[in-house]
Amino acid sequence: MVFQGRKQTVRAAAGAVAAGLVLWAGQPAVAAPPTAAPAVSGSPVRAADTFVLTSATAGGTQTLIVPKTVTPGESIDLVASYTNTTDHAVEVAGMDILFPKPSDAQVDVNDSSYTDAGGGYTVGAGPRPSEDGSLFYVTWRDIPAGATASTRIGITLRTASSGPVEISATGGGSGIGRFDLGKGTINAAPAAADLGVSLTATPKGLGTLNASFTATVTNHGPADTTAAKLRFTYSPGFHLPQATGCTTDPATRTATCDLGPLAGGANVTRTLALQAGALTIGLSLPVTATVTDIAPADPAPGNDTATHSCAALTALLVIC
Predict the structure, then answer these.
(1) 314 or 40, which is more confident?
(2) Average pLDDT score over residue span 292-309
(3) Contact 51/164 with Cβ under 8 angstroms?
(4) What's the CATH fold of domain 8-188?
(5) Would you say residue 217 has pLDDT above 90?
(6) Which of 8, 80, 159, 290 is exposed most, by the fewest CB atoms within 10 A?
(7) What's the mean pLDDT in 179-184?
(8) For the domain bounded by 193-319, which CATH number is listed?
(9) In the 3-class helix/strand/coil scheme, how is 73-136 assigned residue by residue?
């Protein structure tokens, strides 16, 4: 999720916290809201990629949209909102987002940002001291009946983070009671790279007994790979393998190519040349290319293998 529009860092908001200006429940009077920010349209949130913490009471509905998985070193992008379902304007409402111990060690609430997501009701957000872990608050002001106040928040997940990161949320405000939105778990996981392979062969029509097979390995991203190998496997009807930059093994009918690192969006090709034997007339001659030893591990291995078949029509002609 990419934040767009006016963004304010929590370091600026932290000063307001120290001055006791923008905390929501039971704190000193809230400062006058800033000039309303324009509506913000970030990247769409896909339900499959997120989970929702929510609570509905007579005072309204509060919701926190949370990503299921975040790459260490990147931002935990949250969307906090309050919908006023009462018949009157609510002077102040807010939400506390808590990363309880020991998950608090995996986040840096001081390296964060926020932006109003429409309506201009956000008057402040930032870290707040808590004995329970790392806490980040957001405050909304003067929300009319029927209106929704929404804020996008980015909180940095530390580079060394791994595994589950717990998160919970509570809320409240003037005359609307308390909201307990529950808790959930974010998975801190390194970005993965999806490699895929395609395989073409020549001659496509009739040709001599020689055939060449070209495998194209594409990194569909999002991450780069640090290592990968390509392995050709060919049928007993073929012999005399040749593959530049690869190691051939006629005994196992394989050719193995070290691909090295591959950037997201990039591709690399390797070609295996073979010759059909004289006793293969009428037989199917398949060749398979498989990507192996991928680092980091491929999250979608279904496209890591491709096969192409040729056939020997006579002792001198092969069609692929």
Answers:
(1) 314
(2) 92
(3) no
(4) Immunoglobulin-like (2.60.40)
(5) yes
(6) 159
(7) 96
(8) 2.60.40.1510
(9) CCEEEEEEEEECCCCCCEEEEEEEEEEECCHHHHEEEEEEEEEECCCCCEEEEEEECCCCEEEE
